[in-house]
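Recall that a protein's primary structure is simply its ordered list of amino acids. Everything else, from secondary elements to tertiary packing, is in principle encoded there. The following example makes that idea concrete.
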Amino acid sequence: MGPSFNEQFDQHGAWRRAFAHQLKQLSQWMGSHDLMDAAVEERLHRLEEQVRGDKVTVAFVAEFSRGKSELINAIFFAGYGRRIMPASAGRTTMCPTELGYEPDTPPSLRLLPIETRMQAPGLAEWRLKPERWVTVALDMDDAQQMARALEKVSEVRRVPLDEARALGFWDDEAPDDNPVPDAAGLVEVPMWRHAIINIPHPLLRQGLVILDTPGLNAVGAEPELTINLIPQAHAVVFILGADTGVTRSDLSIWRDHLGDAEDAADTRLVVLNKIDTLWDTLNSPSQVQAQIERQRHTSAEMLGMPVARVVPVSAQKGLVAKINCDDVLLESSGLPQLEEALAEGIMGRRQAILRSAVAGGVAGLRAETTRVINIRRRDLDDQMLELRSLRGKNASVIEAMRGRIEQEQREFDHSAAKIQAVRAVHLKMLQGVFQQLGSRALKAELAELAEALQAKGLKLGVRKVYGDTFARLRTAMEAAQASGIEIQAMLGGTFRQLNAEFGFSLQVPPAPQLASYVQDIVAIEQRHLQYVGMGNALRLAQPEFAQRLARALMLRLRTVFESAANELEMWSKTATAQLDAQLRERKRSFSRRIEAVNRIQEAANGLADRIAEIEQAERHLAGLETRLQELTAGIVPPGVHSEAVDTTPLPLTA
């Protein structure tokens, strides 16, 4: 049996901290040896923040009464010795709930009133308005107080049918899924739209975020859940009841919101919960196990998942076993097998992604820094040749050398106009791409769809508008990719010219690749498609729902376009940082050469002293290069694939 999810996540946290520490060491060392420029510093900072601030989101999705909250208690909160998330019979978690930790916010439960669904802003915008949330303080030393406070996520209220319809909890097209009105014709709806729990749980402190989502109606009525939050989760745990198998509403959630994901097999895990309901004393253990296996295979077949990704569990027995330290019951509950599957699936993927990102970034840094060191070494070699040629020469020869150096410097300074022209063309082309990917351009592309969604009544033509809009969005991203390739080609030609004219060693980096963002747009289109189909025609006719849908879509797409623009910007800075570095080194070279000539003139022994200084400087550069290899070897050793990187931190010595 491998390590549990909690143990593996704890190891993942230590692994991230070691990585971040190594990057910080590298940054300090480069700064202390004058190897850091603005672009390199920014790249290092981004890498360190990416590693140190990495979040891992696990979404738990299920229809009501599948034991979802109990499963969260069993996996994450058994250490409290009692239930923390409400998990009684019937409906408990009535609103989507996020559990995480932000150190700047005290332990608390924040609740967004359900009435905000009647207003235009989406969840992301409401997060920026803390005054609209109801906040309940949590006492981390009092598990009972915490449990009582968290029961608020299950609060409900009763509203007239029209209000329930406007809020998204009544669908005339699916009467079987609607709640039953009481004698007064009122319908039960959640009190809260969204809940955020901020507690310093060890796993949450290390970047774990748990998303607890309620049943089909709540998921379908909140577009941001299916467009933004659930798709961006690193793993989704879908929970079924072992006694019921895959019901019609289970199948609706899976097909509409989960099953079509491109990486469904890798990031989706199906839990067949409540297997203890099948523990029948009238049947032999082998008969019970055969019944569980039949449910596993049937569920896997209906959901189109491998049987290995369907894990039978009793969350309730697992929680009891952990609290009572009952190893036999814990093993029977199946909880360790689920935790192991979670650990391998999530942690393995996250580490591979982070390793790849860090390895690629650090490899680029090492190549750039090595280039700077080589420029300095070549400059020292040139100086050494010049100085040795002066041995035995008279003052007039030395003065002639000074004149030649000063003439070279003037010619180089005059060439600055050409270099600035290159910069101007590059920035103008880049600005055009940024405009293509900017929020104003995105808003213009979405204007027709937004107008179609805001039209009154049934929106029969919205599906075609939707398809046309996404076709334009894909074209815009592909055009940005083509522009990036054009800019790269322009820089390549210019760099070759500068290399020939000034002896530079400029190398334009490979063109930025935006294909993944085109795929993101396609994925958003597929996930969003359900909302413009005939099945949602009546829901889409509600102005409040249509507005929420449009805003959720805009927010998700803005994230994609901003990420693409950031990648282009980082690529641009990497390219121009080379030019800046070599310009600085060339200017320093002129200064050092003039200084050397001055020293020779000042003292008879100046020549020998200067030659000795240069030899010492060359030895120092060799030491710098060796130390650079040592510092980065622990992050990305040469010739080793990024996924096999050894993350043992290195000591920082001079």
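The chain has a mean pLDDT of 79. The chain is about 60% helix and 10% strand.
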